[in-house]
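PT: before anyone asks, these are the final sequences, not the draft ones from last week. 510 residues across everything. Please model them as a single complex and drop the result in this thread when it's through.
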Amino acid sequence: MTVVKEVMRQLPQEQIIYFGDTARSPYGPRSSEEVRLFTRQIVDYLIQFQPKMIVIACNTATAVALEEIRAYVPVPVVGVIYPGARAALSATKTGYIGVIGTDGTIRSGAYEQALKRLSPHVEAVSKACPTFVPLVEKGLFQSSEALGVVREALDPLRSLPFDTLILGCTHYPFLTDAIQLVMGPDVQLINSAEETAREISTILHDKGQLAHSLETPVHQFFCSGDPEMFQKIARAWLGEQICAVPVVWRMSQIL
Amino acid sequence: MTVVKEVMRQLPQEQIIYFGDTARSPYGPRSSEEVRLFTRQIVDYLIQFQPKMIVIACNTATAVALEEIRAYVPVPVVGVIYPGARAALSATKTGYIGVIGTDGTIRSGAYEQALKRLSPHVEAVSKACPTFVPLVEKGLFQSSEALGVVREALDPLRSLPFDTLILGCTHYPFLTDAIQLVMGPDVQLINSAEETAREISTILHDKGQLAHSLETPVHQFFCSGDPEMFQKIARAWLGEQICAVPVVWRMSQIL
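LR: through. Structure below.
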């Protein structure tokens, strides 16, 4: 949803067809095989709408399924890992980059691989923060409890001299204030959602496929769990003015 | 050269073939017709090397010649305007963006067009700063004279409530400190050179064309003016460690 919000902000003319796998999230603790299967199912569903691009707006799914999905569909597929890696390489002055993410993302080593692929001499250190997603999903991201949880998770990183920290999970931007407070003002945080929206723009532009209409597009939202709950979350996260009445269908048949 | 430096930093495996039109720069005060002709000549020269991409690393040339060159060569052509526009749209919170550039760039309206194309409701204000390039070319970018020149040029912009200012000329990053001082800490400066390097990375990656070699590539530098002078500037700007001995050929035949 953090990626959707950024796409709506940076590319307000583009129509979005969104699928939130609310019945099976979070993906972080799941096995690679499961995440790959779920991602293929969702892509099979979305491809029916003949999108000009597919965005895997989840770090865990990107980490394990991006290459497979890229080979599998005939349209560009953008994940959230390379955008974050590129933004970090652009931001770092020391060439030493930190990465935090879910268990699945960190275990995959996908960020280190992306960073090394782009710039072989860069140094990276990563740490899984499995306590962050449950905190955000409970809506506790601005509580004092949040600060305590973030401090406990990130304390081991504070002595390391990286100057750039990739928030390698689309939930983590909600914890930006707490993470910045714990890491101090000299560490630049990279929001992979923001960076992904920008790369979507770059690729659509390169292909001459930016939307032309001046009318506000009608987005479509689908989810696998309770649509009322999803609708509430979507309104709260996207804001009434951006997305007044997100209509949500429950797509239980894909499960 | 600011773009080259960023490409070397963000994509150290990519080989660069550079042409600096030192005999005919700066392009800022020239007519659109002249800039278009010069850009075509240089692209004709560079295309012989069968590059996988062409980068027009000059705002003035991008503003007037990008679309023509894109239609003219069979490889992706990246300019420096859309990357800056996209970075500004990603950075702005108010949706009000400032742009400074050469006479040619500002007169073309290319930044306003790019911003509106991506996000129709964004507001932009622009101002030509014809005194900045001569200052940088004289090497005076850290002098007290520089601060005075920057203050005089930007003073009319200080009362406007934009939160993001695009440095719409590849010379301007040298004046970053003075510009930030004059505009105040609340205005975020967008360095189009940095942003362009990142978009080159995005597009090469999307096309599966990132360089694979782990060896340091051998870059090639060409210029239309005095090669010794150019070599000195290249060493000073790129740094000895990045580019120890840039070999420079004078290509007078293209003039």
